[in-house]
Write a structure and sequence with these properties.
Blueprint lengths: L4 H25 L12 H7 L4 E6 L13 E5 L5 E4 L10 H7 L5 E6 L9 E3 L19 E4 L2 E4 L1 E3 L5 E3 L12 E7 L11 E5 L12 E6 L13 E5 L4 E2 L18 E8 L2 E8 L6 E6 L15 E4 L11 E10 L4 H14 L1 E2 L4 E2 L6 E7 L8 E5 L6 E5 L6 H6 L2 E5 L7 E5 L6 E5 L2 E5 L7 H4 L2 E5 L6 E5 L6 E5 L2 E5 L13 H4 L2 E4 L4
Parallel strand pairs: 21-22
Antiparallel strand pairs: 1-19, 2-3, 2-4, 4-5, 5-9, 6-7, 6-20, 8-19, 9-18, 10-15, 10-19, 11-12, 11-18, 12-13, 13-14, 15-16, 16-17, 22-25, 22-33, 23-24, 25-26, 27-28, 29-30, 31-32
């Protein structure tokens, strides 16, 4: 005699719950390794919990243990050739050295982020929409460097104006169907623009009304909804509203979160949804909201359309900024136990922004740059000023504060406009780079302007004084990083500006590369 359908459904649910619990227990008690990928990927865990991935995007690692395909595609500026970047081994980490080799002496952008789920839900350059013209910008392939499991990798750095989309998807939730979403973001890279999203959106790139989206939002936009503190917050973009809970505006249970690597979760089903979050490097998830749909008309039932967006709003609003490393969308409403097991997998993956060496001009190395001009400045170091974004030189010693030491420490990166040259990222303000503007040096995030990558790229040469190194501007090749009256500029050896003075120019443009203060 066959079992009644309701018994078979209960049996399947119990088996799925048991598999999820076993995975959670195993992952939570396992010792993380920095040399190889985990035996299970996040999407293996979701599948065991009965809520399989229907989209899986990452530029840093495989999200299935058996995945051996491409993660993303890049295009180089020198000849517009493209290359798929895959994994070092099945189920493993991104083959970032292949990107480094392919983009040598030029720059590259990320043109495609592949869907690992097998459903073909790839993300490509977002087209125009109701809020903004297009196509949107593509992310600089070198602007979000990290290490994962001890391996070099690159995230997706979304400057304002950058966006990815797929309006013709397969398997993504529509209407009031249940789904889950998680993403790993840089919790220190955000703004109050609309809207840094990842998730479900309209298929026509226009605002089609309340409840037609369900995407993870991260930032400090507080026109619609907000949480406690000053932000940033994980919220849900449900169209015509960023929601931090059941209320239209403040929901005090949704906290400000600023983890360097942040796990952000939104999930929703018929008259239920939740926001969860945690540190992607360690610890467990917290639930910031779990309950009924917002108490505003149009969100119960939902009217999801099933497109996928990254870095933009559903109508192509593209004023936001942020950094994305990985994320998935599921079929069905994942249990907290399944998500807890996924979080354990994420923390075991070993995300880090740490440097790989110290004291050398090698990408990944952490350094400080000491002035060589005698007698005034040989104890002075190039540093950013915490009071504003200007870059200066000032004395730093063993008795200096931890902040002063950190402000004088830089992480060497492959040049954003020419990977054979260098860019300098602040060690204590991730995602912010040394760049010139009107010839003066500042510490800035990429504002989406077309010249930022060039303004932030410098080519090292032998020191103009014969000592140390000098750093030549890639877009003003007669000008070098110089200190003048304790402020940093790019300067030529003679010119109309005061900082182009020929007096001590060779010394002022020569720097010693030394071990980092922080």
């Amino acid at each position: 005699m066959s079992k009644p359908p309701w018994i078979r459904r209960i049996r399947r649910a119990l088996l799925a719950a048991g598999a999820t619990a076993a995975l959670a227990a195993g992952l939570l008690t396992a010792t993380a390794t920095t040399s190889q990928a985990a035996a299970q990927g996040p999407c293996d865990i979701y599948a065991a919990g009965g809520t399989p991935c229907v989209a899986a995007h990452s530029t840093t690692r495989a999200l299935y243990a058996a995945y051996n395909g491409p993660l993303y595609q890049i295009r180089r500026a020198s000849d517009n050739a493209t290359k798929d970047i895959g994994v070092l081994s099945t189920g493993g980490y991104a083959n970032a050295p292949a990107q480094d080799s392919f983009c040598a002496t030029t720059s590259c952008v990320i043109t495609r982020i592949y869907d690992q789920s097998g459903k073909g839900n790839n993300l490509t350059q977002a087209p125009a929409g109701g809020a903004a013209s297009g196509p949107d910008n593509l992310a600089n392939a070198f602007e979000a460097p990290v290490t994962v499991g001890g391996h070099e990798a690159y995230g997706v750095y979304v400057a304002p104006g950058t966006g990815y989309r797929n309006d013709n998807t397969k398997g993504i939730a529509t209407g009031d169907q249940a789904e889950g979403e998680y993403a790993i973001f840089d919790g220190t890279h955000f703004n109050n623009g609309c809207c840094f999203d990842y998730g479900n959106a309209e298929t026509n790139n226009h605002d089609t009304g309340n409840g037609h989206m369900e995407a993870i939002y991260f930032g400090t936009e507080n026109h619609w909804g907000y949480g406690s503190g000053n932000g940033p917050w994980i919220m849900a973009d449900l169209e015509n509203g960023l929601f931090s809970g059941v209320n239209q505006h403040l929901n005090a249970g949704d906290p400000t979160v600023t983890n360097r690597f942040l796990t952000a979760i939104v999930k929703g089903g018929p008259n239920q949804w939740a926001i969860r979050g945690g540190n992607a490097q360690s610890g467990s998830l917290s639930t910031y909201y779990s309950g009924v749909r917002p108490n505003v008309s149009g969100y119960n039932p939902m009217h999801k359309e099933g497109a996928i967006i990254l870095g933009i709003g559903g109508d192509n609003s593209k004023g936001a900024q942020g950094t994305f490393y990985e994320g998935v969308m599921t079929s069905g409403y994942p249990s907290d136990a399944t998500e807890n097991a996924v979080q354990a997998n994420i923390t075991a993956a070993g995300y880090s922004s740490g440097s790989t060496s110290t004291g050398s001009l090698t990408p990944g190395s952490r350094i400080s740059l000491r002035a060589t001009t005698a007698p005034c400045c040989t104890s002075d170091y190039l540093r950013h000023d915490d009071a504003d974004t200007k870059v200066v030189i000032s004395p730093v010693s063993s008795s200096s504060s931890a902040t002063e030491k950190a402000d004088a420490t830089w992480i060497v990166r492959a040049g954003l406009a020419n990977s054979s040259c260098l860019s300098f990222e602040s060690a204590n303000k991730p995602g912010q780079f040394l760049r010139h503007y009107n010839y003066e040096l500042y510490l800035n995030t990429d504002n989406g302007g077309s010249s930022f990558a060039q303004d932030a790229t410098f080519c090292p040469t032998t020191g103009n004084s014969g000592v140390g190194h000098s750093f030549q501007s890639v877009n003003y090749p007669t000008k070098y990083i110089r200190h003048y009256n304790f402020t940093a500029y790019i300067a030529g050896n003679g010119g109309s500006n005061a900082w182009d003075s020929t007096s001590s120019w060779a010394q002022d443009t020569s720097w010693l590369t030394v071990s980092p203060w922080s």
